[in-house]
Amino acid sequence: MMEKLSAKEFDENYKLVMEKYKNALKVAGKNESEVILLAATKTVDIDTINYAI
User: Fold this and answer.
1) What DSSP letter does each residue of 29-52 carry, written as one string?
2) pLDDT classification of 5: cutoffs 50, 70, 90
């Protein structure tokens, strides 16, 4: 089943993910140039993916 997210929902989720990502970098003693954040999905519709990129 495809999940349809509004732009607002996507933006809120993105902000939360980035906060967790940056916290994990600090805990691991890494900087952003050393780590690649890769998104993968099986349930998000193409319009949401296009909005994200």
Assistant:
1) T--GGG-------SSB-HHHHHHH
2) confident
Tens digit of each residue's pLDDT (9 = 90 or more) over 24-36: 999 999 999 999 9
| 50 has a pLDDT exceeding 80 | yes
Does some domain include residue 30?
yes
Look at the chain and report how many structural domains it folds into: 1
Task: For the full predicted model, state whether its pTM sits above 0.70.
Answer: yes
CA distance 45 to 1: 9
Q: Is residue 16 part of a domain?
A: yes
Question: Residue 30's domain spans which residues?
Answer: 7-52
Cβ-based neighbours of 51, under 8 Å, separated by 6 or more? 7, 10
